[in-house]
Write a structure and sequence with these properties.
13% strand, 198 residues, homodimer
Amino acid sequence: MPDLFEVVLGQRACRSFRDDDVSDELVLRCLEAATHAPSAENTQPWEFVVVRSAKQRAAIGGLMSSTWVGGARAVSAARLEPGLLADVEQGAQGGIAAAPVLVVVCGSSVRAFASTLPASVYPATQNLLLAAAALGLGSAMTTLAVHRRPELTALLSLPEHVEPMAVVPLGWPARPLGPPRREPASAKAHREVFGAGW
Amino acid sequence: MPDLFEVVLGQRACRSFRDDDVSDELVLRCLEAATHAPSAENTQPWEFVVVRSAKQRAAIGGLMSSTWVGGARAVSAARLEPGLLADVEQGAQGGIAAAPVLVVVCGSSVRAFASTLPASVYPATQNLLLAAAALGLGSAMTTLAVHRRPELTALLSLPEHVEPMAVVPLGWPARPLGPPRREPASAKAHREVFGAGW
């Protein structure tokens, strides 16, 4: 099993998957990692809807695709370099939904305040992505579909207090993922006050 | 170096620290992990203000303490069991601010939409916490001080577009941390639709 830094420094979004299935055992190992994230007051306000059915995945993929075509693409096209744009587009237009498993990560405001959900649910989602990477699975943090909360709520029978916050595909990468491209940490670090540099 | 699952499944909030310092080298390793989180369009919209000065830490600690006494405590007291309440209170009332390093994790809306910041900045914060745990450091996700954005903005000279989103102490734990307490992942997992169980 790879060490923490190897996984963290190598994590990269995967948007193309092989057809091979992912076992319940592996899905549950990823969810176990997710549920060990910190949360406000240890309320553990996350819920995970694990979607395998081709019909449900296609419906979620349809929400991604229509959100992409209906506006997100125009915004991204002006900002992204062509290679990344093509990869994101491929994911939004069926690549993500073709993964054998989609995990819809939700926050529940029954035990936590809605305003505190992001600081708990996104760390849990990150644990899920890291666990997937450690197991050799491809995954990605996607939020296109959650902009369509009413439709997603209907598809997944979500109660009113449960907010979908990310859709994470799990599958075996169609091809090896290259290394991530990041600015150096020292360029993002400031001593004592903002702008002081490192 | 411990493997990914060992770190993820053992992570726990630390709110009491020894006086010993944490080197720049270790801080930068934690920030390098943080900057490898996924972000919308790979915009990497995070900034980290690394606070070491006793005066700045005390000022941030003052914001935590006054937010706690001024309302957060009353909310938590009704919800938490006494052991956890005492630990959180000790952290809010000086324990967190006594760590030799406070990392104020911020989101910048220059390159990313403000609405997309939580899904990028909190995964980065989680990477920071996991890296700290892998290195033997204690840390915690805290958000009490960020409710006082105007005061924090003034203290850290944050530009208007930079939003403080978490304050993470880094230090050596005063005592060993016990194992985290979590509900089983299967209790949080649903097949195909919410409420179907696992």
